[in-house]
Structure to design on (184 residues):
């Protein structure tokens, strides 16, 4: 982040694929920071879109761009989204490469794998493993990236299962309050 961003600032989280192609763009508001990183929010009616798909949110959500691991030269490795009830997909973690601030907005490379916690019978699972297998060949993901993100996926799955911070309500709930209190 080149300049300090004030809570309440509207912006986008910009995703692309490994080959540089466009992916999701989320209309968000910056909420603030805590020990885990930078938090963002989306309100009902706000837009998330990618080539071939355009959606308007029905319920609020908060998102976390974590601070990268100390010594990392590639930014953070995931972005967390937590959806408010009645959404059944409560936790959605996009595995990423090089998730970071760029030109005062967050950007990331989508790495296909997602860790999901739903409130229905599906429970906790890793999504899009088929895409991961296809794209690691199609895009030529480097072996060190593949090995690293497979470890990160297993670690995140366990943390979501154990509901440790920041993947628990005690950490995320206050950010929903910040989102609701903003005069936008």
């Amino acid at each position: 982040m080149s300049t300090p961003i004030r809570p309440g600032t509207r912006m986008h989280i910009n995703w692309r694929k490994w080959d540089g192609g466009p992916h999701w763009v989320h209309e968000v508001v910056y909420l603030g920071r805590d020990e885990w990183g930078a938090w963002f929010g989306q309100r009902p009616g706000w837009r998330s879109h990618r080539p071939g798909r355009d959606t308007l949110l029905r319920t609020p959500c908060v998102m976390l761009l974590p601070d990268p691991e100390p010594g990392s030269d590639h930014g953070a490795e995931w972005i967390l989204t937590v959806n408010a009830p009645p959404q059944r997909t409560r936790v959605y973690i996009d595995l990423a490469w090089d998730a970071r601030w760029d030109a005062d907005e967050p950007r990331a490379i989508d790495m296909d794998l997602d860790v999901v916690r739903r409130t229905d019978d599906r429970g906790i699972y890793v999504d899009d493993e088929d895409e991961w297998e296809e794209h690691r060949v199609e895009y030529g993901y480097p072996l060190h990236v593949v090995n690293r993100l497979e470890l990160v996926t297993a670690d995140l799955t366990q943390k979501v299962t154990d509901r440790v911070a920041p993947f628990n309500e005690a950490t995320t709930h206050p950010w929903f309050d910040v989102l609701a209190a903003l005069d936008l």
In short: DSSP finds three helices and ten strands in the chain.
